[in-house]
Amino acid sequence: MRALHVITGLGVGGAEQQLRLLVRNLPVDCDVVTLTNPGAVAEGLVADGVRVTHLGIQGNRDLAALPRLARLIRRGRYDVVHTHLYRACVYGRAAARLAGVRAVVATEHSLGDSQMEGRRLTPGVRALYLASERLGRSTVAVSPTVAERLRRWGVPGPRIEVVPNGIDVDRFRFDAARRESTRRRLGLPQGAYVVGGVGRLTAGKRFEVLVRALAELPDDVWLLLVGGGPEESVLRRAAQRTGVADRVLFTGERPNGPAPQTAAPHGPAPLGPAQRGVADGLDLPALTDAMDLLASPSAEEAFGLAVVEALAAGLPVLYVSCPAVDDLPRDAAPFARRVQGGADSFVRAVRQARAQGPGPRSAPQAAHHYSIARSADRLMDIYTAATLGVSST
């Protein structure tokens, strides 16, 4: 079986890194097309031996990209076209039909109650999404919560399949020696209590809540923000304004894979004593080892991948929204706690978590439930059903 994955971009983000993990674990011949931004995840895919094509789409209304993508699909003689993220779903489903491929699967990674991938859910966005959805065989939701949102949006229930995001649990297994070396490289003081935040630095992730909370916490509490994005300068200014700049570390984007040894990126100097270049060569598992707690203040998540990865590293977690945890029995993630409210609530929750002392740093049932191998097996069932459905019609 040959499958083509079409995605909007390949910068460092949850959906993009999830695609790389899936391609590694799917027992099919996979190629990838990115409409825009062939970034760090594209480099990782190429390093994995995957063919990646940059379509070079010019804006949301670049209709000339549609026949280009259709020709690429036709030449590749793909059995399945699998689309990821809003723009890729709209273009990819239509192009697959033009190319004569009817086994079209789409994964909805980022549908919230009020936004999708940062765009407001206007009637126009919904209408275009639903029109293109009818061109596919099935729509995959990354959680039961997203599946219910799709049904409320108007996607027919029989067309919706749930395949949770998956993680490589073994890669996140806690390593005490790696923790010590990572903390030394980051320049963390001995005995520092490190609160981590992982994700794109965008307004929707609400990391400014953690910056404000840090100002009310003891001086030996540090904040380690793993990710890049347009809100980084806003967060830096907030850290300066609240007097905690010397206790906030920004690592920049960290691909969820072996991180290449590179020179420090150009740009404004980071706040605090640790330079961003110190984090170069450190991947996400190493950085989660350095943390004592993960905090996820985002109020609207489709899954909560950073939370699950932190649980796999044995970290206690404070979160506002995480369907991945809330969709499971309560005892599946005993060290994950839901926090309601803003900075004051996180101040109290961090104090309480610290007072309880360090846990065993072992992965709970929730982390094992979201194995990437299990997700890939489930997706193969959907591919098979899509291709059999084509042959029977």
Summarize the topology.
Blueprint: E1 2-7, H1 14-25, E2 29-34, H2 40-47, E3 51-54, H3 65-76, E4 80-84, H4 86-98, E5 104-108, E6 115-116, E7 119-120, H5 123-133, E8 138-141, H6 144-153, E9 160-162, H7 176-186, E10 193-198, H8 208-214, E11 221-226, H9 232-241, E12 248-250, H10 284-290, E13 293-296, H11 305-312, E14 317-319, H12 323-326, E15 336-338, H13 343-355, H14 365-369, H15 372-391
Parallel strand pairs: 1-2, 1-4, 2-3, 4-5, 5-8, 8-9, 10-11, 10-13, 11-12, 13-14, 14-15
Antiparallel strand pairs: 6-7
Helix pairs in contact: 3-4, 4-5, 7-10, 8-13
Strand content: 15-25%
Q: Which value, in Å, is the CA radius of gyration?
A: 21 Å
Q: Which outline best applies?
A: elongated
- Spatially, the strands of the biggest sheet line up as 3-2-1-4-5-8-9
Low-confidence stretches: 258-275
- What's the pLDDT, averaged over the residues? 89
Helix content: 25-40%
Derived structural class: alpha/beta
Q: What's the helix-strand series?
A: EHEHEHEHEEEHEHEHEHEHEHEHEHEHHH
- DSSP E strands, number: 15
Largest sheet: 7 strands, parallel
So what's the oligomer here? single chain
Distance between the termini: 19 Å
> What's the number of helices?
15
